[in-house]
Amino acid sequence: MELTKKLSDAFNAQIQAEMWSSNLYLSMAVHFMDQGLDGCAHWMKKQAAEELEHAHKLIDYAVQRGGKVQVSAIDAVPTEWASPLAVFEHVYKHEKHVSELIDKLMDLAVAEGDKATQDFLWWFVREQVEEEDSAKKIVDKFNIFGVHGLVCIDKELGKR
Length: 160
Ligand SMILES: [Fe+2]
Ligand SMILES: [Fe+2]
Description:
Elements: H1 5-34, H2 38-64, H3 84-111, H4 115-145, H5 150-157
Helix pairs in contact: 1-2, 1-3, 2-5, 3-4
The protein binds fe (ii) ion (FE2) (2 copies).
One fe (ii) ion binds near residues 21 and 54.
C-alpha cells in the first residue's frame, strides 16, 4: 500500500518543519557563538544535527512507501533573542509545537487507516517526550541558578 496523497503531503510539511527546526537551532548556535557561549553553541549544533536526522528519517520512509517527496525552500528563522534564557524558552515552546504537529500527523495516519505509518510515527511521539523534557530541564536550570549560573550551565551543555 502506498502513502495516500493526504499523508504524502503531510509528510512533506513535516519534513519542512524538521528542516526549519534544524535551521532555527543552527541560528541559535551562531547567536551563542557570537556571545562566546561555546557550550550552549555546541548543544545547539547537536540539536540542529538531530533535527536534520529527523527530516532524513521522514524522507527515507516516505520514499520507501511511494510518497512524492519534495525538497523545497525553508522559511527564514529568527536571529535575535533577548537573553540565553529566552533562547531556551523558545526551544521549549518550539518543541511543544512540534509535538502537536506529530500528534496531528498521527491522527491523519489513523484517519487514513495506515497502520505502518502509525507504527513509524510512534518513534517520533516518544522522541518528542525527550525533546520537551531536555529543553524544560535547561529552562529550569536557568530559573534556579539565574544569570550567575550561566558559566556553569554553559560548561555543562558543552558536554552533550
Ligand atoms: Fe525533530
Ligand atoms: Fe526537536
